[in-house]
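Severity: low
Component: inverse-folding endpoint
Summary: output formatting inconsistent between runs
Steps to reproduce: submit the following structure tokens with default settings.
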């Protein structure tokens, strides 16, 4: 079996992944990681110039072409080779940056993350093993990743944006086990042949990455099961599963230790119970939601490479908000909205619009207010002339999620969650006005984020259509809040 560094890492996670790739590739479910892959490519391209002049080995489907070109570059004295490619026995790897260091070489692995995870270390150890097998003298192994503390002002400072971390000692410690790992992975796949091997379900199904074959391996797990219990540690779920406690029926009959909220979820679904309602506590909570009431929701996006001054990597950049304003109970709310111009820094325009739309002395309602408060606080820190008004808005925010997160109202259809995407259909079932699935193009927050981030790269017609869809999505978020609050008011009057 031939192994690349990515296959090696997947084999460490679970060797059955590689068997599935060989014999049942049609069972893979696309993880939808296009945006993550694109980010990795952008950071990788930028990092090539970290050490100065470099030569990149051109990509070829025939990896031998890349190996031959790498050999030629080494022989002609190239100092920095990007995508340097090597074969050793049945192993292949391409090194992000191979840097000349005296009479030897340094391996530099580039990542678009802000930290080093264990799987990166195994990845680098595999590369070191292959290159030493090819006869190269490898002196050091580095990881070049994003420094989350970097704040951009002016031109991007590559040497502050990226952090070079020495991983040589850890990699050296991993090297003695590489051969045994390779042999185990290859033997697992080769020995099984075309007969599907048995494999215990473990946390490796999700860590460090969710396996694309998880749906297939979990196809016989009943629904609901221990894996559907909200707020339970993953290790606990697998511990219960491996002890034979899988279904909710198993939980009810064998009574493993669950916390109060977990037991509430299981019993509510298992016994098909009516909603739990604590009317007096809900009434006390709603007393603080005074009129006029401004229902607020932001949409944000983020970039690994900060595009504007004052931004850090992956900082949330607000580009849109929706506002439903209730003047009094029973009156249809007024709607206002803001969506920034694509390809521009949206922060100033959004902050000014927010101050125009929300007076500084009214009650503002959010769902999971910590997010909205965080956005407003960052805006206030940027614009001194708007800071006072923005912070008054910030201080007047209350959280519509509170009755649900505190379990003052709990419905079996929440399935242990208090996310608005679970609460809304449970409280307003079948309402076509509140159906996210019926929206065009954008149905979730991550889709809105990706759509706006890429908006400037489209035709005027495509931009107009996407803007329309962004507005419809964000509007539904605050309309959902209005309808949920109406239901809570009906409940406490009942």
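Observed output (run 2 of 3):
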């Amino acid at each position: 079996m031939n192994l690349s560094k990515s296959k090696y890492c997947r084999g460490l996670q679970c060797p059955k992944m590689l068997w599935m790739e060989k014999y049942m590739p049609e069972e893979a479910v696309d993880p939808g990681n296009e945006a993550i892959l694109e980010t990795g490519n952008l950071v990788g391209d930028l990092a090539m110039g970290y050490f100065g002049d470099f030569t990149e080995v051109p990509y070829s489907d025939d990896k031998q072409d890349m190996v031959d070109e790498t050999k030629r570059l080494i022989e002609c004295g190239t100092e920095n080779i990007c995508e340097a490619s090597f074969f050793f026995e049945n192993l292949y790897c391409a090194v992000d940056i191979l840097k000349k260091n005296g009479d030897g070489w340094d391996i530099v692995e580039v990542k678009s993350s802000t930290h080093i995870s264990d799987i990166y270390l195994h990845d680098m150890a595999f590369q070191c093993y292959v290159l030493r097998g090819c006869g190269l003298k490898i002196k050091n192994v580095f990881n070049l990743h994003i420094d989350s503390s970097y704040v951009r002002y002016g031109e991007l400072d590559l040497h502050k944006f990226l952090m070079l971390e020495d991983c040589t000692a850890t990699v050296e410690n991993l090297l003695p086990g590489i051969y045994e790992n390779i042999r185990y992975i290859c033997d697992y796949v080769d020995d099984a042949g075309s007969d599907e091997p048995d494999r215990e379900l473990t946390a490796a199904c999700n860590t460090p990455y969710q396996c694309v074959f998880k749906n297939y391996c979990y196809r016989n797990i009943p629904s609901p099961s221990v894996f559907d219990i909200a707020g339970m540690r993953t290790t606990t779920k697998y511990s219960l599963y491996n002890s034979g406690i899988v279904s909710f029926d198993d939980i009810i009959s064998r009574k493993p230790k669950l916390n109060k909220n977990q037991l509430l979820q299981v019993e509510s679904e298992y016994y098909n119970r009516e909603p739990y309602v604590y009317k007096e506590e809900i009434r006390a909570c709603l007393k603080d939601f005074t009129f006029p009431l401004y229902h607020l929701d932001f949409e944000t996006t983020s970039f690994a490479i900060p595009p504007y001054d004052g931004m850090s990597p992956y900082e949330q950049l607000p580009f849109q908000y929706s506002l439903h304003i209730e003047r009094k109970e029973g009156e249809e709310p007024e709607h206002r909205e803001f969506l920034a111009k694509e390809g521009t820094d949206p922060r100033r325009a959004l902050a000014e619009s927010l101050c125009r739309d929300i007076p500084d002395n009214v009650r503002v309602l959010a769902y999971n207010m910590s997010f909205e408060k965080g956005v407003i606080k960052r805006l206030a820190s940027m614009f001194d002339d708007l800071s006072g008004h923005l912070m008054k808005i910030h201080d007047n925010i209350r959280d519509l999620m509170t009755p649900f997160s505190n379990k003052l109202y709990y419905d079996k259809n929440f399935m242990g969650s208090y996310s608005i995407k679970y609460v809304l259909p449970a409280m307003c079932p079948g309402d076509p006005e509140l159906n996210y699935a019926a929206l065009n193009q954008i149905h979730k927050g991550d889709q809105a984020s990706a759509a706006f981030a890429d908006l400037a790269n489209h035709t005027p017609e495509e931009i107009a259509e996407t803007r329309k869809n962004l507005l419809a999505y964000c509007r539904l978020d605050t309309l959902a809040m209005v309808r949920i609050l109406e239901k809570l008011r009906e409940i406490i009057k009942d």
